[in-house]
Amino acid sequence: MYDLFAPIDAVIKAISDPLHKPEDHTRLMVCLIVQIFIGQFMNVFVTQGPLVRHLFQTILGFTIQVFMFRDTVYHVYIIATVAYLLMLFLPRNVQHKAVMVFVMGYLSC
Question: What would the pLDDT profile of 20-54 be if each residue is shown by its tens digit?
Fold first, then answer.
């Protein structure tokens, strides 16, 4: 299977080796810096309305998450989905407690 991010990983490795930093740290910093330019691009060129902006942001967000977390990205989606469902079906005075217990329990396993 072709790794979509292989060319970017080569650049990340070339940056992280001379700095003596782990690749995941370098990947995070590169993403944070690139997001500044993506935000400027979005403000200038993605102005066709809220639907286009939301689609652009959603697709870009999923892409950045997959780039950052690779094979473990499903944990992010599991936590978000269960937390959303808990808030959807539980009473407001219990939601925050249930979500906190679930997230801490899930992350500690």
Answer: 999 999 999 999 999 999 999 999 988 888 999 99
Question: Residue 62 domain-assigned?
Answer: yes
How far is the C-alpha of 75 from the C-alpha of 10, rounded, in Å? 26
The verdict on 13 and 31 lying in the same domain is yes
Q: Which residue segment(s) compose the domain that 91 sits in?
A: 76-108
Residue corresponding to tokens 């500690």 = 108
Look up residue 48 and give its two tokens: 């066709």
Query: Is 1 part of any domain?
Result: no
The CA distances from residue 73 to 3, 13, 14, 38, in Å, are 16, 21, 24, 22
What is d(CA 103, CA 107) in angstroms, rounded to the nearest whole number? 6
